């Protein structure tokens, strides 16, 4: 990521966190999903802030079972005379509810039992060691290479805390999440590039969605 884009991304993310990261964002995601499942046109996104930022959209069932999580670490860099994609466009294109291949797509009958979270990622820093990050505060991303493949994976801060993992278990779990199935030995561990980051989250339940301005034209029940 260029220094200019990184600065723009951080500036936009912090502005969003200060002023605009509310449950309204997650309610908008509900509206995207409902409209998709009902074959309706996408919702109007003109009211949402326009920043190019790293973010993740996560879906859980009410019993806290993960149903989908997809995001981006790389804000799209446009020519200087063009406006960055809106946050809304990211949310629509990520489609974590229907395109996360680890899970069956969310169905219409599940909607009333869902929670949606929008996580904005900021303050990316390289770690000096495998444990150079704080459990419950930082999310981490790993990168590493073998002769044939490039691997990467991430856990948001909440995931690590909820699982009760220590630093070593988190790193081992990330290596497996990346798709790597070989031996996890010291040589591999010292080759990892580890990046820590902070995450700010807004969450909405289906009930929140039914009370939002988005619900009026897409009644599910």
Automatic annotation (TrEMBL):
SUPFAM superfamilies: AMMECR1-like. Residues 11-213 form the AMMECR1 domain. This is AMME syndrome candidate gene 1 protein homolog (Trinotate prediction). It comes from Henneguya salminicola (Myxosporean).
